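Reviewer 2 asked us to include a model.

Predict the structure of this chain.
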Amino acid sequence: MHRLARPQNHIIVQTLRSRSIFETLTHSLYHLPNIDFSASLHLHQNTISFPNQTQNRTMDKEQEDMQFLGFFGCYKESFKIIFSWRKIFTQITLTLLLPLSFIFLFHIEVSNLIFKKIQHTEEQIDHTQQGTPKYEKLTDIVSSQFITLLLFKLVYFTFLLIFSLLSTSAIVYTTASIFTSKDISFKKVMKIVPKVWKRLMITFLCAYAAFFAYNFITFFVIILLAITVGIKSGGIVLLIFIMIFYFIGFVYLTLIWQLASVVTVLEDLYGIKAMVKSKELIKGKMGLSIFIFLVLNVSFVLIRLVFKVVVVNGRWCFGYVDRTGYGILCFLLLSCLFLFGLVLQTVLYLVCKSYHHENIDKSALADHLEVYLGEYVPLTAKDVQLENYRV
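Predicted model (structure tokens):
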């Protein structure tokens, strides 16, 4: 009680600077009727804590309402986040997403040029007599072209992976910071990105291993089917069913991987544990997740198709000016799609958490985000959930 009363006396002394007024108030308080100050103090404590309880209930209600967001609700929330914080998202886009889009489109253009050279060399080989010096020279040329293509693909996938992980780290961290009403700046985001992407790399490697095993099993089943059944009508029907189930499983694994990337940034889980957590979160929101995945990927395929047909192959346009214009348009659209897709993944994560009543306490999540800056001790997954808080 002395600890509580002392600050109040300090405030009175600082506020009432006139000695005469202070003495008058003291004299008035001395002649007041007897009051149970312990009860008054208890009432005061309850009054102080009540607004915080009301605020917490308001935040819980907001999070509980997120589970009712549908396809258009998720899109609207993502657009609102991006346009409300367009300055920092523009900075991230210029720094990470534009290079990522450039790497992807540049790879399509260069790969096409190398393929054309390989095809041209192979056509020359077909019209050259074997054993001649010219034939041996063309064989060496096509071998070096294949090696060049392989090395280029290796460099491409390396840079694509690095910028993909960095972009995911930056966008997810920024979106989560906005959700927690935490102070965020571009400098702070770029400071934590190198620390987060290492965890994302582990999650990516686990997802890659899962995809490799899945593709290997599917290939083994197809080979076994071809040996046992053959290419008869029954075998073709079975092959169609296998490909349908393969596509469904591929989409499911992709959803788990994408949501696991968000889990890796916002919780203390990564790798296989993040994928297991993602699998649990998707339950109940599978339809919404698949619909979002299909719309984003259809948009991605359309942008890639337009770039391939119009810019790379030069169809449907009249010259290099048109091709350059379409190239810039595809470049900007792809960057915007990457940005929107990553923000949408984070919103979907919050929707899934709300659906499973794993409401996130914003202060706890803000503390968890500060771990990357070395300011707080890492939280466990349970600490991020409001239900596990102790009063």
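The longest helix spans residues 133-179. The chain is about 80% helix and 0% strand. We have added this to the supplementary material.
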